[in-house]
Amino acid sequence: MPDSSSVFSQALSRQGTNAEKYELRKTLFGRDDVLPMWVADMDLPTPDFILDALKQRLEHPILGYTVTPDSVYQAIIDWQAQHGYKVEKSQIVFTHNVANGFFMAVSAFTHPSDAVLVQPPVYPPFLSAPPLNVRKVVEAPLVLINNRYQIDFAAFERAIVDHSVKLFLLCNPQNPSGRVWQRDELQRLAEICLRHEVIMVSDEIHSDLVYSGHRHTPLASLSTAIAQATVTLSSPGKTFNLGGLQIGYALIANPELKAAYLKVCNAVSIHELNLFAMHALRAAYSEQGKAWRDRLLKHFSNNIDRLQTFFYEHLPDVKVMRPEASYLVWLDFRQRFSDHARLKEWLIDHAKLGLSDGQTFGGESQVGDGFMRINLAVSEDSLETALQQIKQAL
Question: What is the mean pLDDT of residues 3-21?
């Protein structure tokens, strides 16, 4: 395995690869010379042992239809066991990615005009999935206390009762803040949902990227009763930079929920992972994958340290929310910019950075105004370039 200094230090060109984060710069930011640090996609190489697995499969000249071998199911079962989550093969349903997974969940577990509960600020597809499926979005915003998000449980339950909520979409760990929900918090949320017969869908795609001092708790691992009302969504895509392979899976213990979910999968003919997704998942969910993840977390932690130090020295009025999981960092510019449009203009035209717009995470509650999300899954060189551009803009 290559040394960390060579893998994570130097920027890699993605020219000619149709990389979304680069190809869409002009569309999203009005100019194509910004350094893109928005979509949750790494500017770091996919691990060599995964590429080797794909190359080995390519040695066979036929790329025909395939069925999923037991080894893929077992890889998922063994990987989830790290988190104390006991999964059985019969509970695994494949999706194309996690977002696709909860879009199908909205369709499977609710009817038109039913209410779906979300907690902004949150990953934008949480906010768009219900209306695109002709469902109603109900918001129970998180509360920011001392630069850390907390759950207002009273408001959460009141939203369920007032709007007859049928489905709750949970981001665990949370995106964009990187908050790792603690066991007692998840227990309390789940008990409220069980009390009101609300189905829970837990997006746990960032669960492998949890930093020291924190521990991921799968929602469905809390109890049998909670597992029976929960659909867990996950993927190796974020941890191993495999977004282009469209890998996702749902874990569903309740046979009735699984049957409803499969009905939607069958309606759009989603049954298996693609050939290369299977090989990549199996290679990622291995002992080599665990070692890679640990090295990756050290690199991300160093990048976060550098970002925090820089802002403390040069922009002390901007609050950096240190993530407890993931390589995404939520930045609070509200003390520096009272106008969100002015903030965007400064970042794009002066700092020449393309970040994720906080407003897209805020929903009707507008709790993302004045915030930006930056992606630190970049090389040491790229981060240094970004910091120097901010310094020059100042």
Answer: 84
Q: Could you tell me the pTM of the whole model?
A: 0.96
Place of tokens 């695994």: 92
Residue 258 structure tokens = 């699984």
Does the pLDDT at position 150 exceed 70? yes
Asked if 138 contacts 118 with a C-beta cutoff of 8 angstroms, the reply is yes
What does the block give as tokens for 356?
A: 């994720």
4 pLDDT higher than 60 = no
Is the separation of the CB atoms in 43 and 10 below 8 Å?
no
DSSP-derived pairing of the beta strands 165-171 and 115-118 = parallel
CA-to-CA distance for 45 and 177, rounded, in angstroms?
25
Tell me how crowded residue 66 is: count the other CB atoms within 10 A of its CB: 12
Cβ atoms of 215 and 85 within 8 Å: the answer is no
Q: N- to C-terminal Cα distance for the chain?
A: 40
Identity of residue 321: M
Write out the two tokens for 380.
């040491």
For the stretch 183-196, pLDDT in tens is 999 999 999 999 99
b or e along 141-174 (b: 16 or more beta carbons within 10 Å of the residue's beta carbon)? bbebeeeebebeeeebbebbeebebbbbbbbbbb
- Is residue 176 pLDDT above 90, yes or no? yes
Q: What is the pLDDT of residues 313-351, one digit of tens each?
A: 999 999 999 999 999 999 999 999 999 999 999 999 999
In 3D space, the residue among 323, 249, 241, 250 whose CA is nearest the CA of residue 289 turns out to be 241
Give the strands of the sheet with 353-357, arranged side by side: 35-37, 353-357, 371-375, 328-332, 319-321
So what's the pLDDT on residue 5?
55
Say which residue, 4 or 87, is predicted with more confidence: 87
Question: In angstroms, what CA-CA distances link 338 with 41, 344, 352, 370?
Answer: 30, 12, 20, 7
- Least reliable range by pLDDT among 3-17, 42-56, 281-295, 372-386: 3-17
Q: Which domains does the chain have, with CATH numbers?
A: 4-48+288-393 (3.90.1150.10), 64-286 (3.40.640.10)
Q: Which residues contact 190 (CB under 8 A, 6 or more apart)?
A: 200, 219, 222, 223, 226, 229, 230
